[in-house]
Amino acid sequence: MIVDLNLHGDLVIVVGGGNEGLKKVNTLLTQDCKILLISDSTSRQIQNYVKQKKISFRKMRLGNANFLKKYKPFMVLATTDDKELNRKIVEQAKSMRCYAYAADDPEVSDFAFGSVINIEDTVQIAVSTGGKSPAMARKLKLQAEHIFRKVIKKEDIYHIKLQDFARKAVKDKLPTFPERKKFLYSVMNDNHVKQLIRDGNLKKAQKRVMEMLGELI
Ligand SMILES: C[C@@]1(CC(=O)O)C2=NC(=C\c3[nH]c(c(CCC(=O)O)c3CC(=O)O)Cc3[nH]c(c(CC(=O)O)c3CCC(=O)O)/C=C3\N/C(=C\2)[C@@H](CCC(=O)O)[C@]3(C)CC(=O)O)/[C@H]1CCC(=O)O
Ligand SMILES: NC(=O)c1ccc[n+]([C@@H]2O[C@H](COP(=O)([O-])OP(=O)(O)OC[C@H]3O[C@@H](n4cnc5c(N)ncnc54)[C@H](O)[C@@H]3O)[C@@H](O)[C@H]2O)c1
């Protein structure tokens, strides 16, 4: 089952700063969460993220998973090249009731990553083969990516941002779900809104939404 996790403000701990650790950090950076990386060595890219204060880093050589007890993470990703250590980290994380993942152990992981097409951090399209072939998931992603990037236009991204605004605006203004739904579709199909979005004028499009709402209430 593919779900879109809400990590807002949560702490995610990544253990291991190699290729897999970096991949996971890059994915997490598209989310609004706190990232702590623990590893005995790191790449230049990871060091740049630390300098830019995008992630926290603790340089540590781990022998077991006891370090986790100091933290209250929402999720723990074990990406070292030590299978036994990764397993211990997953077991400790699970005992603390947080989501656990090991890059080398799909059997014990609570979830797997898909191969993701990320369009402006606004639309995400994931391909998964359910662990049967990660290489094919990547290949299909690459095959599909240019098509999705053509089909999903800049205007669609603006429409999503405007819908987000409009959904919040109607929440306590229109009392029933059918009314809210009708209004949101009317915003999407309004010629004036469409023109403002074509012009890239989100601020004016938001003003138009408020006018449309004002006409209703
Ligand atoms: C999609 C992607 C997302 C990501 O990692 O973020 C991802 N793996 C990717 C690439 C990739 N991974 C591997 C290869 C080498 C070729 C091959 O094995 O196929 C390649 C290809 C390459 O690198 O080119 C090796 C590998 N993968 C896993 C193991 C452990 C094991 O199976 O035991 C081993 C070591 C096996 C060994 O030692 O032999 C396990 C998993 N990898 C998954 C996801 C989950 C299932 C997703 C699915 O089936 O759809 C799952 C179950 C858990 C997880 O890690 O989430 C990412 C593409 C990102 C992109 O789009 O660029
Ligand atoms: N899920 C996937 O898609 C996928 C893909 C490729 C590889 N893998 C698996 O993921 C694992 C990691 O691969 P990688 O390429 O990132 O390896 P890597 O060697 O690049 O990185 C391992 C990292 O773990 C750190 N580390 C190792 N032991 C440690 C310890 N005791 N304490 C602290 N830090 C420690 C190292 O310093 C290094 O930064 C491998 O077991 C590999 O089989 C998974």
From TrEMBL:
* Keywords in alphabetical order: NAD, Oxidoreductase, Porphyrin biosynthesis
Gene3D superfamilies listed in its UniProt record? NAD(P)-binding Rossmann-like Domain, Siroheme synthase, domain 2
Q: What is its EC number?
A: 1.3.1.76
The family database entries (InterPro entries) matched by this protein are listed as: Met8-like, NAD(P)-bd_dom_sf, Sirohaem_synthase_central, Sirohaem_synthase_N
- In which pathway does this enzyme or protein participate? Porphyrin-containing compound metabolism; siroheme biosynthesis; sirohydrochlorin from precorrin-2: step 1/1
- Give any Pfam family that matches: Sirohm_synth_M
Q: Name one GO biological process term.
A: siroheme biosynthetic process
Chaperone keyword on record: no
Chemical reaction(s) catalysed = precorrin-2 + NAD(+) = sirohydrochlorin + NADH + 2 H(+)
Q: Name one GO molecular function term.
A: ferrochelatase activity
Q: Does the keyword Iron apply?
A: no
Residue span, Siroheme synthase central domain = 124-141
NCBIfam families recorded: cysG_Nterm (TIGR01470)
**PANTHER family, per database record:** SIROHEME BIOSYNTHESIS PROTEIN MET8
- What is the protein named? precorrin-2 dehydrogenase
> From what organism does this protein derive?
Nitrosotalea devaniterrae
